[in-house]
Structures are given as structure tokens and as C-alpha cells.
Design goal:
The protein is an all-alpha fold and 244 residues long. It has a domain of 50 residues. The protein is built from twelve helices and two strands. It has a two-stranded antiparallel ribbon with strand order 1-2. The longest helix has 18 residues. The chain is globular, with a radius of gyration of 18 Å. The C terminus is likely disordered.
């Protein structure tokens, strides 16, 4: 129920996870569910506590970006940046690492350090105008927002327009599931990427969920090429292999 309600009614989803916690508070996936639901409900102190507890029980670093963003939401951007640059964040899987640096860039932005915020995202090789990863719409949007805040209006417009191009390439505008597909005919379609609400449906296929909890995001994150014709004035890159 929490998984079903997470997007449409996060407060009620959170209540469901609390009910689960009263029955299985020592189970890692239950504490993760409470933390994720609390985060979506805007209860950042609760989210921070529960996600830290989940990490302590499971040893998983998958939710570090949510922990960092909770710190940021609680008015501690410097702690969010510190966590993003800490040793435990250095070896995160690519998709999780990108999410962490989006949080760090936002934390720099909160402090008015726009140059540092832009540099945080520009250091990512996945910030590629002509390629779309699963996280590219969020990454492009975050970058465009920072460009706008820095007064680079024309650059911000270009990257905002590219958000829609990436969403079309990924099929997001068709309200499909959030999976990654390679549009090149010689490449295989990637498996469906896990969504936050999937992680809290602990009453369905418990063994599969525990495996997902341990592995987090797939090590290789597929991408699609954005055709040169879709982006006026931007040369398409000639790379064939895009998995990072």
C-alpha cells in the first residue's frame, strides 16, 4: 500500500510504513521504506533517522543521496556537501553518484556558491548534451536551473529544451515505466531500473526485494543517443558505447 500511495498521497504512504515498522522494525527494508516515505512526505528529520538506520543495518550506500538531501532540507547544506565528497560516496555506482552530485550542486546553490555548483555538475561525464541516461532529465533540469541562477539565460534555455528531447528519447512523455532503452537497433534493451516506490513494496516477493536492496542500481546504466537533427547547432558525438 505504501508503494501504491507514495506518489499520490505520501502522507498516507508514510502512515502505512509506520504500521509496518511497528511489526518489523528490525528489518532493513522496513526501515528503508519508512525513510523513503518520510522523505517524500517532507518529514526530513524522520527520513534522515530512518535512512541512517537502514544503512547501519544493511551496509548499503544506495540511499546516501537521500540522506544528503535530507541534510540539505534541514538547513545543513555544508553537511550534505561533506557527505557527497566523503570516501563512502567515492565508489557509488554511476547513477547513484550522479544523484549525489545533483544534491551537492543544489547544496552549493543554497549557499549562493553558483560557480562551485556548476562545477559539481560539469565534472560529470554524463552531463552530455547529445546523450540521455535514465537520470538525464533531472540532471539537465538541475544544470539549467543553476545556469539561470548564474544569469546565463540562453544556455539555460538550451538545456531546458534538451530536457524534453531526452524525455522523448526515453519515452517518458508517453507515460511508460522509467526504464532505459537504447534506440540503436544493434543494441539490446536494458532492464527496467528500480523506482523508489518499488523499494517499499515489501509485501510482494520479499526475496527479490531483499536482493534489490543489496544491489541498488544496475552497475551499467544504459543510454540513448539524441539525434543531431533534434538539436539545432549541437554536433552529435560519434561514440557508440555509452554504458558507464
Amino acid at each position: 500500500m505504501a508503494g501504491r500511495l507514495l506518489e499520490e498521497d505520501p502522507e498516507l504512504a508514510y502512515e502505512h510504513t509506520l504500521a509496518a515498522s511497528r511489526r518489523g522494525g528490525r528489518v532493513a527494508v522496513v526501515r528503508e521504506a519508512v525513510g523513503i516515505a518520510a522523505y517524500h512526505a517532507g518529514k526530513y528529520a524522520d527520513a534522515l533517522r530512518e535512512l541512517r538506520t537502514h544503512r547501519r543495518i544493511s551496509g548499503s550506500d544506495y540511499n546516501l543521496p537521500l540522506i544528503a538531501d535530507s541534510l540539505r532540507a534541514l538547513g545543513r547544506p555544508e553537511k550534505a556537501i561533506e557527505l557527497a565528497h566523503a570516501e563512502e560516496s567515492a565508489n557509488l555506482e554511476p547513477a547513484v553518484k550522479v544523484e549525489m552530485q545533483i544534491v551537492a550542486a543544489g547544496a552549493y546553490g543554497d549557499q549562493g556558491k553558483l560557480n562551485e555548483a556548476l562545477a559539481e555538475l560539469e565534472s560529470l561525464e554524463q552531463l552530455n548534451f547529445n546523450r540521455a541516461f535514465s537520470f538525464s532529465p533531472r540532471l539537465f533540469t538541475a544544470y539549467a536551473d543553476l545556469l539561470s541562477a548564474a544569469g546565463r539565460t540562453e544556455d539555460a534555455k538550451r538545456w531546458n529544451a534538451q530536457v524534453e528531447v531526452a524525455e522523448r528519447a526515453l519515452g517518458i512523455e508517453q507515460e511508460t515505466e522509467s526504464f532505459i532503452m537504447d534506440l540503436a537497433p544493434e543494441m539490446d534493451e536494458e532492464e527496467e531500473a528500480p523506482r523508489a516506490k518499488d523499494l517499499i513494496e515489501s509485501d510482494e516477493d520479499e526475496d527479490q526485494e531483499q536482493e534489490a536492496e543489496q544491489t541498488g542500481v544496475d552497475e551499467e546504466d544504459g543510454l540513448v543517443e539524441i539525434a543531431e537533427s533534434e538539436v539545432e547547432g549541437e554536433p552529435a558525438q560519434a561514440e557508440d558505447d555509452a554504458s558507464k
